[in-house]
Design brief:
The chain has helices spanning about 10-25, 45-60, 135, 155-175, 200-205, 250-260, 300-320, 340-345, 345-360, 375-380, 405-425, and strands spanning about 65, 75, 90-95, 110, 120, 125-130, 145, 180-185, 210, 220-225, 225-235, 280-285, 290-300, 325-335, 365-370, 385-390, 390-395, 400-405. By secondary structure, the protein is an alpha+beta fold. The chain has two domains: about 10-225 and about 340-425, Aminopeptidase, CATH 3.40.630.10; about 225-335, Alpha-Beta Plaits. The strands form four sheets. The protein has an eight-stranded mixed beta sheet with strand order 1-2-8-3-9-16-10-15, with helices on both faces. The protein has a four-stranded antiparallel beta sheet with strand order 4-7-18-17. It has a four-stranded antiparallel beta sheet with strand order 12-13-11-14. Helix 1 packs across helix 11 (about 405-425).
């Protein structure tokens, strides 16, 4: 392992290899979710990893490990202290993004990264270049895992799964470490926004939880977007094109006019960062008779989110007004809500995480998520669930990579967090 003053924890150094071993085993299993499925989980192949995790949890001594009918894995690390400690949850998701293939992942391990350009061996058009990836430049001397350039890696969120598993194994093997009861939860379908659809809070039984679904080492995230999904259906009039003069109303062109009317310099993912929200068309399906546009609407501020929805409805009405025979219908549903409104009432969670990260040899820093996690919805449902780093980068792409030292630091953070949580209760 590389020597770096930012990674001064012997425990982090010890746990990097066990986490890596598990991670490489897990990424070999294709668990890609599907946005078009009507099953739950959306792909049954996610259960291949879930079943393996139940077996491994039992092997390390967690006899209550179970896979339920909805694809959730749950297990308990028993307390080692006699005083009462609120149950703390640790959560990660097994599925990977539909955006890039997760089949036949061929990870490559780079030992002692030299700071140069990293070729992805199966794709001559892609590489990891520290000139383009500032975070990569910070990992000279570290051990990295990348893809071969043809698939995603799966660090989102199999790194979180591996880190929870490695930390749980360590805690079970060291009963002298004082901690309260821990509940482990592995969810399906997070990448398609359905990770908590059937999550039973009562069965899980935690008073608070953390997801391990972040990125840069040392991150604590207690704020996410609030999120809407907008379905815009354009209905025209279908006619044989040879005899369509004065009669045809092309739904595809209606949809095109709507998209063309969206702001170009603002309110789009490609032109925003930080606390800026956006409206984003990302699926279009249909024919000249009827075309459906699926959009996501995001902002950290509820008033601005409402304004974005109002913009979409206004633009839809304007398109419909261009022809009395055209119809445009907008349906909006809430996907998740910014967790910060709830987590501000639980400063003890952030304080515990910050101290755990320090004990793991890193400096904690709070960031916001330009997206959502399972914790967004769980927090809204009553289980306060901030997010911790897992060490991965460039998620949802063939350029995805992870640092082994960061994985060790994430494992150490979990171990220290369990102890700090018991200390606070004592």
């Amino acid at each position: 392992m590389a020597s770096d003053p930012r990674y001064s924890s012997p425990l982090a150094a010890e746990l990097g290899e066990p986490a890596l071993e598990r991670f490489l085993r897990y990424v070999a299993i294709d668990t890609q979710a599907s946005e078009s499925s009507d099953t739950y989980p959306s792909t049954l192949k996610q259960l291949d990893l879930s079943r393996l995790l139940v077996e491994e949890l039992k092997e390390i001594g967690l006899g209550d490990a179970v896979l339920d009918e909805h694809g959730y894995v749950m297990a308990t690390v028993p307390a080692t202290v006699s005083h009462e400690v609120p149950v703390l949850g640790l959560i990660a998701h097994v599925d990977t993004s539909p955006a890039v293939s997760g089949a036949n992942v061929k990870p490559q391990l780079i030992t002692g990264y030299d700071g140069g350009r990293l070729a992805l061996p199966a794709n001559p058009y892609l590489a990891l270049d520290p000139a383009d990836l500032p975070e990569l430049a910070k990992h000279v001397g570290h051990d990295l895992v990348t893809t071969d350039g043809t698939t995603l890696l799966g660090a989102d969120d199999k790194a979180g799964v591996a880190e929870i598993m490695a930390a749980a194994e360590y805690l079970v093997a060291h009963p002298e470490l004082p901690h309260g009861p821990l509940r482990i939860g592995f969810t399906p379908d997070e990448e398609v926004g359905e990770g908590t659809k059937f999550f039973d809070l009562e069965t899980f039984g935690a008073a608070a939880a953390f997801t391990l679904d972040g990125s840069t080492a040392g991150e604590i995230q207690d704020e996410t977007f609030s999120a809407l999904e907008a379905i815009v259906v354009f209905t025209g009039v279908s006619m044989h094109p040879g005899f369509a003069k004065g009669q045809l109303v092309n739904a595809i062109k209606l949809a095109a006019d709507f998209v063309a009317a969206l702001p170009r310099d603002t309110l789009s993912p490609e032109t925003t960062d930080g606390r800026d929200g956006f409206v984003h068309p990302y699926i279009v399906e249909g024919t000249g008779a009827e075309t459906t546009l699926t959009m996501i609407v995001r902002d950290f501020d509820e008033e601005k989110l409402a304004a974005h929805e109002a913009l979409l409805r206004r633009l839809a009405a304007e398109v419909a007004a261009t022809d009395p025979r055209a119809r445009v219908e907008v349906t909006v549903r809430r996907q998740y809500t910014n967790m910060k409104r709830v987590l501000d009432d639980h400063p003890e969670l952030i304080a515990a995480a910050e101290e755990a990260i320090r004990r793991a040899g890193l400096e904690p820093h709070r960031t916001l998520i330009r997206g959502g996690t399972d914790g967004s919805r769980l927090t809204e449902l009553g289980l306060p669930t901030p997010n911790l780093f897992d060490g991965g980068h460039e998620y949802h792409s063939e350029r995805e990579w992870i640092c082994v030292q960061d994985m060790g630091a994430a494992c150490a953070t979990i171990v220290h967090l369990a102890q700090i949580w018991a200390e606070q209760a004592g």
